[in-house]
Amino acid sequence: MASHELLPRLVANGGQSSCHDYYFGDQSMSSELHWRLSILKAKGLILSGLSWRVGDGAQIPIKGSNWLLEEGHRRILSPLTNLPVDARVGELIHGSPPTWNIHKIQSLFLPYDVDAILKIPLSGRQQEDRLYWFDTQNGKYSVRSGYKLLCKDARAHIPESSRQWDPDPLWKRIWRARVPAKIKTFLWRACHDSLPTKSGLFKRQVTSNPFCDTCREQSEDSLHALWNCPAVSQVWSLAPEFSDLQKLAPMSLSDLMRQVIQSNSNLLFEKFAITSWLLWHKRNQDRLRLPSDPHSQILPRAHALLSEYLAVTTENKPQKPQPPQVRWKPPSSNLFKVNFDGAIFRDSNTGGLGVVIRDNTGMVIATLSQKVTGNHTVEMIEALAARRAIRFAMEVGVTNAEFEGDAETVIRDLCRTDPIYTPYGLVIEDAKVMLAEIQNFSLSHTRRSGNSVAHALARRASKCNSYLVWMEEVPPDITHVLLNDLSALAVE
Ligand SMILES: [Zn+2]
């Protein structure tokens, strides 16, 4: 498939005339302004929905283009004043097989960006960079997802990376906040007065007046919209932890946020962040006459969102091993079984890969436990585990193998023939290319309980520095997990 089929024509061709054709066919249009505006808006929209999948990095400008994987953080935010405008992502990659140049990356970027870069998967094959659409599963553009993106507040997107960086502790606190990336980005924009408030739009001559649409009394800057407007101020007054702050008269939103930080109470900044974000969201919904929660629901919603986020991002305490419902099954007689699994360690921003290769009597041929950098998504860590498992099997010299994992999506995508254009798809393709070199293989899905040794190996990676391999045995601390599988075999 030619790469342009991936994208709507207007992006592939660029240029005003092709935009015109894309939207309206060949019939000649009058030059009415609103048409042009909507075309330009749509073009901007489509460009904002595209991201680079890093291959060799040769085509991707480090500055100003979408190439990171996080929602709300697709572009580099570090100031990079010393970096030439045409510096390419390829300059951050070295070695063979290619890896991220961690030292260089750490010296150039702020920690927030460093984490986001190191989690981008690289392929061992020579790969060109390619654009993909990040709102669909397979990375292909669809009209439906384009429309969805258009419905999102187009202005609530990525901050300009060209902005001067201010080494203020406030920024550090924003990036450290335990809230989703999109909320950090929102706060950052609010502090830089780059939210599309009425006064901001008025300054840019987009609206005829700067006055708040809610109270119609004062000019609406971000401080007014999120803190001072009477309707909003009433919401804050319902939260006792903010009552002291309400007695102050901050000069600006960043001034207010500094006060929030100074109060030093647990998670106050996070509560402030999520509540502000919900208030801003409501304000936008109301402006567009779309349904929104009443003001009275904002605090309970903020509370629920915060607990939800903390629950997802906090390590679960290890539970007592439950008797497995699905047991590990040995491969058929002339095959080896390769189980793999991935784990995510949120607190250290790393992940783990675990692989175990066994023969048809359940005896271990080899095991691997590897740490990877970056806080990957579940899907990505499972794909990385699959790729590592196949490579490990080849390294060990296994040519007849049943590969088994507990992530259904990954197994399904490994069996699919149509390409996936996302960075996740790159890892899946790598895996498929290697699979093709294995004489005899099959792929299967099992439950977590049938994959417990690989799972334990992946979890164990949090303790190691890079990776560890054991031949014909498992590390002593997970022997009991292996014995569990073996005892199940003996019973049958
Ligand atoms: Zn107001």
Automatic annotation (TrEMBL):
Coiled coil: none annotated. It holds the Pfam family zf-RVT. Residues 339-461 form the RNase H type-1 domain. Residues 141-236 form the Reverse transcriptase zinc-binding domain. SUPFAM superfamilies: Ribonuclease H-like. One of its GO terms (molecular function) is nucleic acid binding. CDD domains: RNase_H_like. PANTHER family: BNAC02G40300D PROTEIN (PTHR47074), POLYNUCLEOTIDYL TRANSFERASE, RIBONUCLEASE H-LIKE SUPERFAMILY PROTEIN (PTHR47074:SF48). This is RNase H type-1 domain-containing protein.
